[in-house]
Amino acid sequence: MADELRLLLLGAHQSGKSNVAHSFLNVKCESDQMTMQCVKMEGNINGRKILLVDTPGWWKCFQLCDTPERLKSELVRSTSLCPPGPHVFLLVIEVDLAFSEKHWKEAEGHVQFISEDIWDQTIIVFTKLKHLGNKTIEQYVEREGKNLIKLTQKCGNRYVGFDTDLNRDGSQTEELFRQIEKLVAENNGRFFKADARRLMDLEIKIKNVEERATARAHQVLEKRRKLEEIKINTEAEHDVTPLNIVLLGWVLSGKTLARSVILGTEISFDKTVKCVRTCGEVNGRQITVMDTPSFWKFLPNQLNADSVKTEILKAMDSSPHAILLVIPADTSFLEEQMEVILENIRPLGEKVWRQTMVLFTWGGSLGNKPIEYHIESEGDALVRLADMCGNRYHVFEA
Questions:
Q1: How far apart are the first and last CA of the chain?
Q2: How far, in whole angstroms, is CA 357 from its chain's centroid?
C-alpha cells in the first residue's frame, strides 16, 4: 500500500465538491467562490498523507462541447498536479436534483475527456444527503432509474455518501477513506499515468494562448489610450449628450441582467418578448437601454419567431449609438454560434459592426484569467467576432 494517497475531485458546479475536499481533509475553506482553476491540498488521515486536487466544475446539463476550452485544459492538467498520478478519482454528484439523461451525458463526457480508462479508479461521492429524507443511498440510486444506474455501474457500483453538515463525528470521512483504501488495494496501488505527449502539447497550447492574449490586451490598451486622448480634446458637451444603447444576445446570455447592471436598476428575471426601453442616468449622462428578445443559440435565424426578428429591427429605429452583443464567458463559443450571430445580425446591415461591442457576461467564471485569454483559447470563431467588432469588448462579473 502506498504511503501517500493521491486523489482527484471531479463534478459539476454547486455539487458540493469543494466542501467535500475541505471537510475530508479538515482544512478550512478560505472562500465560498467557485473553483475556476485546479487547487492542490494536502492533509493527513489515520497517519496517511493525502494529496488532493480539486478541479473546476462544469455546469449541470452542459455537454462537453459547451464547456470553455480553458476549463477543459484544467481538467487535463489536473492529473499532473499530483505526480506521478492520482490513485483515485472522486466524482461528486448531489442528490437534490433528478439525475436525467443530460446529467449522465454531462458526467460521462467530462470524465472521459481526461481519459476513458479512469472508470475503474473512480468512486461516486453523493452529497446533500439531507434531501434523501428516510431513504438510503441505495434506494435513491434505484429510484433515479437507468441514467444513474448506468453511471454507478460504470464506476463498478462504488459509491458513498458525504454530507459536510452530517459529518460532525467524522464517520463519513472514515467511510470515504475506507472505500478509497479498498479501491487502491484492489488496483494493487496502481495510479493513473497521464499521457506525457498530451500534457506537453497542452503546455505549448497554453503558452501560445497566453502570448496571443497578452498581445491582444496591449493592442486594446493602446487603442483605449488614444480614444481617451481624443475624448480629452473633444468639446465637453459631447459627454452629456443622451446615449442610446441596444442589447442583442441569445437566450440565457445574461442580456437582461446586463441592462440592470448598466442602469443600476432592480434585476428582472422576466422573459423579454418585446423590446423593453429603460432610461436612467449614469455619471450625469442620460442613458436609454433597449433590451430585445433573445434569439436561439443553436438554431438558425429562420427558425426564430417572426416576432423576435421584428422586434430586433424595431430596436434599430431608436438610432442607437452603440449595440452591445452579449456573450456569456462561461460557455464555449464555436463556429456554430458565430454563424447564428451572423445570421441574426445580417438583416441590420454591414455597417452595424462599426457600432457593435461585445459585452461578456459571467466574467466571474474566468477566475484569474483575463478576458483576452478566454477569447484566444476559444479559437477562431470568437477571435473573428472580436476582430469584427474592432476589438471593442467589456466584461461584467455577473
A1: 47
A2: 22
pLDDT tens string 167-192: 878 899 999 999 999 999 999 999 99
pLDDT tens for residues 8-28? 999 999 999 999 999 999 887
8 Å CB contact between 9 and 53: yes
CATH number for the domain formed by residue range(s) 198-395: 3.40.50.300
Q: Is the bond preceding 84 in cis, omega lying within 30 degrees of 0?
A: yes
3-state secondary structure of 236: helix
* Segments making up each domain of the chain, as ranges: 4-194, 198-395
CATH architecture of 4-194: 3-Layer(aba) Sandwich (3.40)
Query: What is the reported pTM?
Result: 0.91
Q: Hey, do 4-194 and 198-395 end up sharing a CATH topology, with the first three levels equal?
A: yes
Burial level of 287, CB count in 10 A (0-12/13-18/19+)? middle
C-alpha cell at 62: 452542459
Residue type for position 143: R
Output the DSSP codes for 74-109: HHHHHTTSSTT--SEEEEEEESSS---HHHHHHHHH
Burial of 331 (0-12, 13-18, 19+ CB in 10 A): buried
